[in-house]
Every structure is written in structure tokens, then in C-alpha cells.
Known about the structure:
Elements: H1 3-24, H2 28-37, H3 45-59, H4 62-75, H5 82-100, H6 119-122, H7 125-145, H8 148-170, H9 177-203, H10 210-226, H11 231-234
Helix pairs in contact: 1-4, 2-3, 3-5, 4-5, 5-8, 5-9, 7-9, 7-10, 8-9, 9-10
Amino acid sequence: MPFDNIVADALIMGLFGVVILILLWPGETQGAKVLRRWGVGDPSQSDVAEAVRYLRRRRFWYPWLFLGLPVLADAAGVRGDSTAFFLATLLVGALIAEVLAQRPPKSARREAGLDRRAVSGLIPVWGLVTYATIVAAATAWLVVHRWWALLGIAAAVSAVTWLIILLAVRRPSTGDSAADGALRVRSARVAAGLGLAATVTLAIPEVTNLGSWILVVAGFAGWYNLAHRSRAEAA
């Protein structure tokens, strides 16, 4: 692809990222909504402020990633559609946010429980099984078709996904234990869902038959269910 076309595509994606940032820049209402959605029935003002920081820490990076990822991908010889770049942006943004969150806040209220955290405490068994099953199916699809380059990219996506999950497990506690746990669970489950969708998108360059359709639908259904707290969990 000519360099001027690459720059034009990057600028368009960057503008798209700025629009998303403006539309989705969180305030107190959205912070409280996120906490309630993930199990905090009556969040305090400090909990809401922490949720707002949590969301802003992720969304701040979207315009720059939308601008830079297409250029980097083209320079590396990686081809992908807009869906792949969109999912990659969300996943890399989550990784950057989790890395930055590893530094304990100077004035945080350390009230989280003393129980040792584990991945199984953030992602339920059904979620882990769903993730493993769909990723294994996508990997098998890549191997059968001998798409080795895409297999390497899918492996990198899985590595980023699990790095985010593990960082969410070990993230220093901030604020009330319920709010801290809710945001931690959200990080792990959204990352697992994004990882599923991104892997399927990479594994199926073209949806051409029943098998590829089933894999795509399963991947995006898994993403939706992992990234949303069901009514049964809320009960």
C-alpha cells in the first residue's frame, strides 16, 4: 500500500478515535452505572470517582491507538479489516491501562479483602471453558488451513489477553473492596471477551461456509456474554 494511503487511513482511524473519545468520555453518571452493572448496588462518591478514573485510563488511549496501529500493522506486513483493528485497539488500550494501574495510588484507601486472588475468582468456570473452547477451535481452523502468520498473530492476541487478566488479578487495591472487586472482574472478563472476538476475527479472514459462520457467531456471542454481567449473576 502506498505511504500516502497508509497515512490517510491512519488519519481517518485517528479521527474516528477522537470522536469515540468525545462521545464516550466518562463522567460520574457512567462511573456509577458501571459499578452497579458489576454488582455494586450503592456506590459511594469515592467509588464513583475511582470508576471514572478506571474508564478514563482506558479510553484516553483510543485515538492514538486508532491512529498508530494501522501504520504499525502495515509496516509489519500485517493485513486486517476495520473490525480487527477496532478490537486490537480496545485490547491494547486495556493492556496499557492495566500496566499503569500496577502503581499503587498514594492516597488509596486499602480496604480490600485479604483473600488471595486468582483468575477463577474473576472469570467464572463457564467463562474459562467458553474461552478455551472457542480459542482452541479457532487455532485448529488456522492449523488446518496452514495460515501460519495468522496463527502467530492469534497467539500474540492470546498472550495480550492473558497478560491483562493476570495484571487485573495482581492490581493494587484501591478503595472499597466491593468497588475494587467489581472493576477487577470487569477488566478480566472484558479482556477475555475481546480476546475471543479478536482471535475469531483473525482466524476467519473470510466468512465463506457454515463452519466459519459458526466460529464467528460463537466468538462474538462469547464476547458478549463474558463482557456483560447476566441477570443470574446479579441475583
